[in-house]
Amino acid sequence: MMQIRIWLSHLYAWKKACETDGGTLSVPKGNYELSDIEFSGPCTGKTNFVLDGTIIAPEDPTPDIDHWIMFHNVDSLSISGTGTLDGNGASYWETTHDTTITSLKLNSVNKVDIRDIHSINSKKFHFNVHNCNDVTINNIHATAPEDSPNTDGIHLGKSDNIIINGGNIATGDDCISIGDGVTNTNITGVNCGPGHGISIGSLGQYEGEQEVRSIRVTNCNLKNTKNGLRIKTFAPSQPGLVSDITFEGNIVNNVDNPIIIDQHYCPHKKCEGGESSVLINGVKFIDVRGSSSVETGVKVDCSKSHPCKDIQLKGVSLTFEGKPTNAVCYSADVEFLGDDQTPSSCS
């Protein structure tokens, strides 16, 4: 009964905040249990959500709902505070589920600023930005055990003009994953690990996927991750396009596959034979430095039917146990620019 009262009070407080330009819904310090909830617009003007307490999700989510907390159809939204979203995911990870539940989802929300929020133990994704424009995410913290499945820190999909600055992400999957339809996105200064690195993809699984374009990942630190800077597409796949991608100034420390383009991605080993139909064109890896946990520091494994075009590496320095790493390249136009680069060519 207490949980129902808290749920209703949050909805009422949101309604009042939404009706007022500059209105605020505040969650004070303390612990609060809250079932799945949707905060919907449109609102009168800018709306603020301030989280200073800890909100705890139920162990058993509502069936067939893909979120715990969702903001929908809101223009001009601020989400901030020193509080924590506790997804309470431990028992959920132990069983198989078809629904990808996000702790905090933004759906059709524009002009958003998220800062300083902590998310722990999400059932699946921590943060999911879908069909949004003009989103800035500053200094968020997302943590879940290294073996927790599909607990991506931030997932982006079908969104434009996204900025992610700083923060610490340590999860059981991608620190940041970029799905189809994401354009004009800048990610900088993120600390990632453990986890599966920073990934574009996986792409090509569904019909009608949109282009991924103009993505910049700069000055991030990746430590003890299963992948580093990655682009991944299914094989076989639906058609798609990835273009104008830059990874620059990133540091890797004991990372599997520090630089990897994988166009034969098949996570469950149940893929039928064939090649990816996603074209990857115009990818730069600049000043990527540090240590690999495997001998191959650069792997570019592209589609035989749609070879990668214009892949450039400049100022890359990757070592394995103190020695130079190697690079392997398949079905790709790869150019190593400049001197004193490790690796310096495809083997």
From TrEMBL:
An example Gene Ontology molecular-function term: polygalacturonase activity
Species in which this protein is naturally found: Salvia splendens
Similarity field: Belongs to the glycosyl hydrolase 28 family.
Active-site residue list: H196
Protein name: Polygalacturonase
Keyword Cell wall biogenesis/degradation recorded: yes
SMART domains, per the entry: PbH1 (SM00710)
Protein location: Secreted, Cell wall
InterPro entries xref list: Glyco_hydro_28, PbH1, Pectin_lyas_fold, Pectin_lyase_fold/virulence
GO biological processes: carbohydrate metabolic process; cell wall organization
